[in-house]
Design a protein that fits this description.
The structure is a single chain. It contains 18 helices and 15 strands. By secondary structure, it is an alpha/beta fold. The protein folds into three domains: 29 residues, no CATH class; 201 residues, Rossmann fold (3-Layer(aba) Sandwich); 180 residues, 2-Layer Sandwich (Nucleotidyltransferase, domain 5). The strands form two sheets. It has an eight-stranded mixed β-sheet with strand order 3-4-5-2-6-7-1-8. Strands 9, 10, 11, 12, 13, 14 and 15 form a seven-stranded mixed β-sheet that branches.
Amino acid sequence: MSLKARVSRLPAEQRRAWVEAQSEQAQREMARGEWWWTARPEQVPPPGDWFICLMLAGRGFGKSQAGSEWTVEQVLKHPYDVRGTPTEWLVIAETLSDARTICMEGPAGILQVLRRKEVKHRYLKSPRPMIQFPNGSKIYTEGADDADVGRGYNAAGAWLDEIGKWKTPKRSWIEGIMPSLRSDLVGDRPRAFVTTTPKPIDLLQEWLRRDDGTVHIVRGSTFDNQNNLSAHMVRELKTRYEGTMIGRQELYGEMVEGFEGALFNRLDLENYRVEDVPDDVKMTVVGVDPSLTGEDDEMGVVVVSRTRDNHMYVLADRSHMAVGRDAALHAWRVVAEFGADLLVYESNLGKRWMQQVFNDAYVELSQQGIFPIGSHAPMKGIDAKVGKKTRGEAVAMRSEQGRLHLVGRNFEKLEDQLVSFTAWDTNESPDRLDAMVHACRHLMATEKNRARMSSPGELMSSTLAQLLRADATW
């Protein structure tokens, strides 16, 4: 608990006596909620010679507040380096927008901390958000768009937020950020404070394996901070995630590499992720898994390409909350957006009615000029005779082999479905996952030079049929 929480549990008389025993300055700081008063011990990096403080914690733990408080404390502690030069500091998030709206301007952001402490500063929003102090020190913001992020700075420290979601976290750290942490400080060293929900990416796993004292690990859960969170939100999170593998990651801050019974592995998705698609794309399809019931259902819409070497690339997840005509129109617009060759859907009995809906929607868009007038709807139903698990295993094997690639990082919901779904023996499965599997199955079926496995009975029947045809021709 925080010091404030511990004091609040004292009997009234003891509490009053304790507060009155504090200095006037301390009482003023308590009144405005200074960090030494409100912080839980685990939110404050400890003293020591660590280089990286890695805070792996669930959502709502208070990571942003911890990052803001630490950054301001370091700036005030080290206004100059050993040469008397004003220090510069980095705040880097997944995007520049996140760095601005969460790390700088958010309710737990750096600007709130500076205002509370009444620290003089100037906030510049253009060309990118930056805070300048009277002595010349600066806090710069960056978005982790590429591996060069942080390059060129002479930084005294960095706050890295949600590094588990960055595009190229390991390269960004090794090539851009780490070499920039080189300011020569008085009685200290440059440090990085990393706040993130855990994802099993290579960089985090490398840091976790360190045993040389350079990495200090902080772990925590959503519920450590529940006194400061909406009770309704906490209850909803428990209802949705309690007892699940995804809940262990998102709520309890555990590093979950694999979900028992899941076919897809997070490490495979991370290791074989790419930023661009090769030029030799042979086919692009849009896999859809239409909703069957009410208005609140989501239709899975996932775009996948296959290259000449039979690698598959997931280009986009355009899943949409819609049913019927609206869902079909949305799917065809995605086909047009990506110039896809085909729309692929599951043709089981429960969804055959969607064929006519898709066809009507295609005609409607043709009349609007999106597709050629009089052309036939390029769509294909993929059979559901093979069991759901067997279908998923074939695609998961490509992922394990490094032949299935996510392009970029805009797949958070799809990835969570891929690595957390385990009920393959049931009739229910997530729409995004199904849509991707449909698209990949079709692309795999159109590959050339594939080995075909047949039973001895099939081979005999095939040979007999050839002999009969040859005899009839003769």
